[in-house]
């Protein structure tokens, strides 16, 4: 394992975590989940095959998921599960954008976040030394 992996993990984890944490914070505490659901989901996808109940479910839950997963990623707590959750979130949002605009440009937020998710999931096992997951693992041994 390269000596820089712990630093790479730490920096990548905090950048990715902050991106999701701050997006979730804004959607939960500034915009509110109700406005997020109505503005970005119900109104935006009313003319698609997606039922309104599912649009509301996604619109209300995504801000909370972003906030929670972002905090967990920053802390390095339940990192794998949080990374999988935000990966699935990117699948949902990419589908939504592509449904609205079939030639959706993935180069913006989506690709950057996806690259960081892949980097963190592919990092050598045990290389994330500066995380709560590592601290809990060492404490258990």
Topology diagram in text:
Blueprint: H1 5-31, H2 33-42, H3 52-75, H4 79-100, H5 109-122, H6 132-140
Helix pairs in contact: 1-2, 1-3, 1-5, 2-3, 3-4, 4-5
Summarize the structure in words.
This protein has 141 residues and is an all-alpha fold. The chain has one domain (5-135). The protein is built from 6 helices and no strands. It has helices at 5-31, 33-42, 52-75, 79-100, 109-122, 132-140. It starts with a helix and ends with a helix. The model has no long low-confidence stretch (mean pLDDT 95).
Offer a quick outline of the entry.
The protein has helices spanning 5-31, 33-42, 52-75, 79-100, 109-122, 132-140. It has 141 residues and is mostly helical.
The helix fraction, in percent, is: over 70%
Order of helices and strands: HHHHHH
**Structural class of the secondary elements?**
mainly alpha
Through-space gap between termini: 21 Å
Summary keywords:
single chain, 141 residues, mainly alpha
């Amino acid at each position: 394992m390269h000596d820089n992996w712990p630093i790479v993990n730490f920096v990548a984890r905090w950048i990715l975590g902050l991106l999701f944490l701050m997006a979730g914070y804004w959607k939960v505490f500034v915009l509110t989940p109700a406005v997020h659901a109505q503005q970005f989901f119900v109104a935006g996808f009313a003319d698609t095959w997606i039922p309104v109940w599912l649009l509301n479910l996604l619109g209300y839950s995504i801000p909370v998921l972003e906030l929670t997963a972002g905090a967990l990623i920053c802390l390095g707590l339940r990192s794998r599960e949080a990374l999988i959750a935000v990966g699935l979130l990117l699948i949902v949002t990419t589908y939504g954008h592509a449904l609205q605009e079939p030639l959706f440009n993935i180069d913006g937020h989506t690709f950057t976040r996806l690259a960081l998710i892949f980097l963190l999931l592919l990092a050598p096992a045990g290389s994330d030394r500066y995380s709560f997951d590592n601290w809990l693992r060492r404490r258990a041994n």
